[in-house]
Amino acid sequence: MRPKLKFLSDNLVQQILDEAIQVICRLGVEIHNPAVVNLLADHGGLVQADKIHVKFTQTLIETGLKTAPHSFKLYDVLGNQTHDFVDDRIFFTPGSTALNILDYETNQMRKPTTGDYINYVRLVGQLPHIAAQSTAMIPADVVDTISDSYRLFLSLLYGEKPVVTGTFTIESFEVMKDLQLAVRGSEKTLKEKPLTIFSACPTSPLKWSDVTSQNLLDCARYGIPVEYIAMPLSGFMAPVTLVGTLIQHTAETLSGLVISQLANPGSPVLWGGSPAIFDVRYATTPMGAIETMMIDCAYSEIGKHLGLPTQAYISLSDAKLLDAQAGLESGIGATLAALAGINSISGPGMLDFESCQSLEKLVLDNEICGMALRLVQGIEPREDFPSLPHFEELLAEKHLLISDHTRKYIKEELFVPGVVIDRANRSRWQEEGGLTLAQRAHKEVEERLLNYQPSRLPDAVKKELVRLMEAEAKRYGQERLPQRIE
After folding, report:
1. Which of 312, 310, 222 minimizes the C-alpha distance to 263?
2. Residues 6+ away with beta carbon under 8 Å from 397
3. How far is CA 449 from the centre of its chain?
4. Backbone phi, then psi, for 139, in 5-degree steps?
5. pLDDT tens digits, 31-73
6. Rounded distance, CA 255 to CA 416, Å?
7. pLDDT of 485
8. Neighbours of 451 (CB within 10 A)
9. How high is the pLDDT of residue 483?
10. What residue ranges of the chain are covered by domains with CATH 3.20.20.480?
11. Parallel, antiparallel, or unpaired: how do β-strands 100-103 and 356-357 relate?
12. CATH number belonging to domain 67-375
């Protein structure tokens, strides 16, 4: 039996939905994209006199929910299926768009470089419990105007896993789409085998910017899956109560879903987000707060009630170092998310309020993800009945280390973590160097980077990716891309 966690009763889910619908139907949503405003108006949305506020209708919402798919699949650069976002299947993805990286040598945060990003891609490709890449950090050695496309370019060039990404500009979408077409070969194949998920973030409260609105239209046109990342902040940019925050999150996410489905009915979506409580003592948005995690799990319940696959930024930490707080918050988040059945769990590797990535923490979090994946398999009998023969063998042999039953089921039944998790006795730990968690994690990072095997993407496709990226860089005044690690 799969263990399951719920925070909301069915009645409370429906109350939240009803209130959210009232909010966007009676108060409306602020939309700064004329094409989206016109699209809503053409389908019955009520445009207000200022031309940026639109009141939704029950019919609009019902239409959007009716056409939104209940699941979709994701594929790697080679066209192999890696994800099936259905039911309570869970998949882990690193946190995204960090401004800093935690430097192991100095134990200080600094701006990432192209080399850091490539090492990240090389590492993620070898972490078995993390199913996708994300455009995890922003290299500071390229101009800002190409940072979105450049990260996707490096991910596709050096890695094989699908990519969770997004863009902060309207202009970047075109080349990011072309990079994907270079890998897939045609628009038809890209729609059939999605390679990326784009994050689309409304602005709380109840607003869609020109850029994010256009992202919804562009992704819908090409069948690129979208995850809606509403970010209400409890007690600041949202009601302080968890229920009030959930109403706002639902309203903002529903509005995005309607836009996507009007643009292209059947567009694949994830009911996602990155809400948080607001800690008034420090004016921070703690992602590791238990209430933040509760909101994540609860809005996933609402998404599942609507029959939609879900996403959340959870399983990450607000710590500044790879310390006990980092493990505590990430471990609790991964466990709750897994038990809640959140389909796409974003966060591994992240520190400092979603602003920093750590390769060493990513190695640790890979083990946390493995434990969570084992947890949701639950407990099932494996030729345990009748049990008498097993105990007869145990009493006769004095152990069951090499019994047929043990050898048959040990790999299925017991999760064996990598060396970053210390399970040696004290004397052996000392004999092997008495390494700290950070030292073990760094050693694992270095070994995996040495073992990296280049992407099996055909050379002709790699050359086309480079051509597209070089042309984009020159368009914005950067004549040469940073030297890449081959």
Report:
1. 222
2. 403
3. 23
4. -60, 130
5. 999 999 999 999 999 999 999 999 999 999 999 999 999 999 9
6. 44
7. 62
8. 9
9. 81
10. 67-375
11. parallel
12. 3.20.20.480
